[in-house]
Here is the input.
Amino acid sequence: MPVKIRLQRHGKKGKPFYWIVAADARSKRDGRYLEKLGTYNPNTNPATVDLDVDGAVKWLQNGAQPTDTAKNLLSNKGALLKNHLAGGVKKGALTAEQAEEKFNAWLQEKEAAIGATKDTLAKAKAHEKAKALAAEKEVNAKREAEAAAAKAEEEAAKVAAEAEATATEEASNEEE
Here is the structure.
C-alpha cells in the first residue's frame, strides 16, 4: 500500500485550515487517513504549523512519500533533517547523541529566525499604528482650528451686526 504524507483541507470557504496526515495514496483528498501528524494554518502571519516530528519521521522511514507542500512543511519543522540524521545513525556515521545535538542546535537557530520575523512584523504593525494615530491627530487639529475660526467669524459677525444695529438705532434717535 503506497502511503503519502499530505494535506487534508478543513475550514470554511476562503479560510483554509489543513491537517497533515499520512494516508493511502488511493484515498480521496479529504477522505480516510492512517494517522494525523499535525496541523497547518496559513491564515496567521507567520503561518502556524504544529507537527508530531517523531511520527512524521516514523512514516518517512517506513517509505511514505510527502507531497510537495507537505515536504516543505516537514522541512521547515525539521522532520526531514531528523530523518536524515537517523539514517546517519543507522549507517554508523554518527552517534544518537550527536544527531540529537545537531537537531537541537538547528531547532534553536530556527526558533531565533522565527522570533526575529515576529519581532519585525510587530514593529511594522506598531509603526503603522503610530503613523495612523499621528495622521488622525493632524486631521483632528485641523478640524478644531476650522471650528475655532468659524466660531470666531460667527462672533465677529454677531458683534458687527450688534454694532450696526446700535448705530442704526442711534441714527434714528438723532433724527427724531
Q: What stands out?
A: The beta strands are 3-12, 15-24, 35-41, 48-51, 65-66. The longest strand covers residues 3-12.
